[in-house]
Amino acid sequence: MFALVSEEKSMTHHQQITHSRVLVTGGAGFIGSNLCETLLAQENEVVCLDNFSTGRYANINHLLANKKFTLIEGDICHAQDCQKALAGVDYVLHQAALGSVPRSIYDPMATTQVNVGGFVNILHASVRAKVKRFVYASSSSVYGDYPYLPKIEQHIGKPLSPYAISKYTNELYAQNFSELYGIQCIGLRYFNVYGKNQNPEGEYSAVIPRFISQLIRHQSPVINGDGKQSRDFTYIEDVVQANQLAITTKNENALNQIYNIAFNGQTTLIELYNTLIDLLTPLDSRIASVQPIFGTERKGDVRHSYASIEKARQLLGYQPRYSIKDGLEKTIQWYWENLK
Ligand SMILES: NC(=O)c1ccc[n+]([C@@H]2O[C@H](COP(=O)([O-])OP(=O)(O)OC[C@H]3O[C@@H](n4cnc5c(N)ncnc54)[C@H](O)[C@@H]3O)[C@@H](O)[C@H]2O)c1
User: Concatenated DSSP letters for 132-191?
Assistant: First the structure.
């Protein structure tokens, strides 16, 4: 009994960053703002570097009054902004990027400038600032056309979009810089993250917030293709946990590695749609009768995405806590309160 309690406590202890100064790039975005909030609650100083290209003040307004929070409106592509943001920083959680596969197909240069040029810039600035560790967001899109499931870190296919190439390039630079300059890096391949603060609006919004906001307004969501494509949807709090573990791990073997961060579940878009209808109908019975529209398949999309999380489990102690249903319940509650 005692052993169990202390084990549980020490697990919680290890996965928290505390009394450190942490730079969160892209801190006004969906994942970044959730990281900022948790880090501040754990008594860290947080520097948020964001140029608000896709980030939103609404995500961080409530943090501005906190004396331990510093907002720097700047660009990861600008050396001076990076240098300023990195002053006195212990750890970097690098989230800033232009997300979205379709955006990268429409404007490959913009994606490449920010996701590759900006990445090298902030990584090199972090080397010069002698940070203790650099943890960065990679993506499941790196698996490209690799056909076998579940996806395992060392087996990747041909990338299917400029976005996927940009994220794979990040992994190559991180590995190279750790060898050249000795910086400790950890890459997290996120799989379709969802939860509070994710932007539901705009052409490049992600499927879960878009569907929820449309259903709340009784509009028909568009399912691209036949709806049988699947995703390993990952709740934001599990992603926050993974970042904390990556920063705090003392396991030498865990450093300079790349990890799948997912729930390890497979959900088709049709199943997602039906679950959303089931969860939203008790809040508004009219939602039950909203029918989806089936659109054309999207270019550049991976057909099935389902992660093995064994590596993160073994080397980092990662344990996702939110099934798709549990995560969606919390997410819907937040959108219901914030969109209505
Ligand atoms: N959300 C997901 O499902 C998912 C999946 C895989 C990978 N990722 C990666 O996770 C990271 C965070 O994604 P997100 O969903 O929070 O996206 P987001 O668009 O909400 O956040 C990205 C943030 O980066 C900022 N930014 C963009 N360009 C910048 C620049 N040049 N300088 C400074 N700030 C800049 C944006 O303003 C925004 O606040 C990204 O690197 C993304 O590629 C996300």
Answer: SEEEEEEEGGGGTT---SSB-TT------SHHHHHHHHHHHHHHHHHHHH---EEEEEE-
Q: Say if residues 32 and 96 touch (Cβ distance below 8 Å).
A: yes
Closest atom of ligand 1 to CA, residue 234: 3
Give the number of other Cβ atoms within 10 Å of residue 259's Cβ.
Answer: 26
Which residue is closest in CA terms to ligand 1's atom 12? 95
- Give the position, in ligand 1's atom list, of the atom nearest the Cα of 55: 39
Give per-residue pLDDT as tens, 233-260: 999 999 999 999 999 999 999 999 999 9
CA of 138 to the centre of ligand 1 (A): 10
Å from CA of 23 to ligand 1 middle: 14
* Of 191, 198, 77, 76, the residue nearest 137 (C-alpha): 191
Please tell me the distance from the alpha carbon of residue 206 to that of residue 210, in angstroms, as a whole number.
6
Question: Is there an atom of ligand 1 within 6 Å of 29 CB?
Answer: yes
- Looking at the chain, the whole-number percentage of residues with pLDDT higher than 90 is 92
Domains and CATH numbers, the chain: 10-194+236-264+307-322 (3.40.50.720)
Q: Which two tokens stand for residue 181?
A: 């300059």
The ligand 1 atom at the shortest distance from the C-alpha of residue 163 is: 43
